[in-house]
Amino acid sequence: MVQRIKVASYNIRKAIGTDRRRDPARILKVLTEIDADIVALQEADRRFGPRVSALPSLLIHSHTDYVPVPLDVQRDSLGWHGNAILVKKGITIESHDIIHIPCLEPRGVVSATLGIGGASISVFGMHLDLSGLWRTRQARAITTLAEAARAERATVLMGDLNEWRAQAGAFREFARHFTVLDPGPSFHSQRPVGRLDRIMHCNRLRMTGCGVHRSALAATASDHLPVWAEFALG
After folding, report:
1. Which of the four, 15, 151, 181, 187, has the lowest number of CB atoms within 10 Å?
2. How many domains does the chain have?
3. Which CATH number does the domain housing residue 60 bear?
4. Does residue 48 register a pLDDT over 70?
């Protein structure tokens, strides 16, 4: 039986919109518009102080069909260095992990193995460094781990790669092992020109569609637009 899965990646900029207002409810409304099964978030926690979640848990549970993957890292934080994964209610969280990667800035990767409709899928969420040299090193470290996951099950990687150049080292590293999708320009949300937000997948998944989610709400909710992809598995 073929299982269809929709995933999305969204840099929510700590829920601060282009109007400079912090509005977590607006971010959650954008997620409802996208209606993905699995969402990787970047900048999901405040940057300073106790690094509390930019999306209060109560709002997520009361205003959406999502539950956060429990990374169990920092109290009151949603993610790990701002990276978080949300899944639709009914999806089984089989395992989860945080991954340390080589970095110049504070960076990390989150991963989860999920059960959805009788299928199993590994998801990696990331936000790579501003430095090209470090991005390449990070991509190499992430693909090593994702390759191990791919040997067991379908695997998707997604996030803000911070890469403007189409033939850059990070893309070459990922492309050696995975198909790198180009949903389209997603940054800056008001006038998108940068293809910074990407989704990558293994050959166990067949892509049936991908793109950038454009709406009036998304254009103001963050400085990035969300990107999405749909896959057939099985």
Report:
1. 151
2. 1
3. 3.60.10.10
4. no
Within 151-215, residue ranges assigned H as helices are 169-175
Question: What are the angstrom distances between the C-alpha of 75 and each of 53, 72, 101, 196?
Answer: 9, 8, 22, 30
Is pLDDT of 51 > 80?
no
Beta bridge partners of 164: none
Read off the pLDDT of residues 61-94 as tens digits, 9 standing for 90 and up. 999 999 999 987 777 789 899 999 999 999 999 9
φ/ψ (deg, to 5) at 130? -75, -20
By residue range, what is the domain housing residue 57?
3-233
Mean pLDDT of the chain: 93
DSSP state letter for 83: B
- Given this model, what pLDDT does residue 75 score? 72
**C-beta separation of 147 from 139 below 8 A:** no
DSSP string, 131-152: SHHHHHHHHHHHHHHHHHHHTT
Q: Which pLDDT does position 166 carry in this prediction?
A: 81
3-state DSSP assignment of residue 221 = helix
Strand order in the sheet with 119-127: 92-99, 109-116, 119-127, 154-160, 197-201, 179-181
Burial class (CB in 10 A: 0-12, 13-18, 19+), 211: middle
Percentage above 70 pLDDT, the chain: 98
